[in-house]
């Protein structure tokens, strides 16, 4: 079942890609006495992979989901 529209899925992919780039620039930094640690790179990549595999509502409406088969032999029904 699709939970995202194509536009929302792309928005999420863009946001997670931005996070991936931010982590690539620096995993952790300190300003004064404060320390910031960003999310782990493998977790971001796993989420991007998951998003990529998700069908969109438009995919389902267009029938891009599971394939359906039609019998091409007359008189045979399955």
What can you tell me about this protein's structure?
Helix 1 packs antiparallel against helix 2. The protein is mainly α and 78 residues long. The chain has a two-stranded antiparallel sheet. The model has no long low-confidence stretch (mean pLDDT 80). Strand 1 and strand 2 form a beta hairpin. Helix content is 49%, strand content 10%. The chain has a domain of 53 residues.
Short note summarizing the structure:
The chain is mainly alpha-helical and 78 residues long. The chain has helices at residues 6-25, 41-53, 57-61, and strands at 28-31, 34-37. Residues 55-78 are annotated as: Disordered.
Sketch the topology as an H/E string, one letter per element: HEEHH
The stretches of 5 or more residues where confidence is low (pLDDT under 50) are none
The major beta sheet can be summarized as: 2 strands, antiparallel
| Total number of strands | 2
Looking at how many chains there are and whether they match, the oligomeric state comes to single chain
Structural class estimated from helices and strands: mainly alpha
Q: What fraction strand?
A: 5-15%
Strand order of the largest sheet: 1-2
Summed over residues and divided by their number, the pLDDT gives a mean of 80
Rg from Cα: 21 Å
How many angstroms separate the termini?
Answer: 25 Å
Helix content bin: 40-55%
Overall shape: it is elongated
Number of helices: 3
InterPro entries: DUF6148 (IPR046146)
Region (Disordered): 55-78
């Amino acid at each position: 079942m699709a939970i995202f529209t194509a536009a929302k899925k792309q928005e999420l992919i863009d946001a997670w890609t931005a996070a991936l780039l931010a982590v690539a620039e620096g995993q952790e930094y300190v300003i004064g006495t404060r320390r910031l640690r960003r999310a782990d790179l493998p977790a971001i990549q796993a989420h991007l992979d998951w998003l990529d595999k998700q069908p969109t509502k438009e995919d389902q409406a267009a029938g891009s989901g599971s394939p359906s088969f039609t019998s091409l032999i007359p008189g045979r029904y399955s």
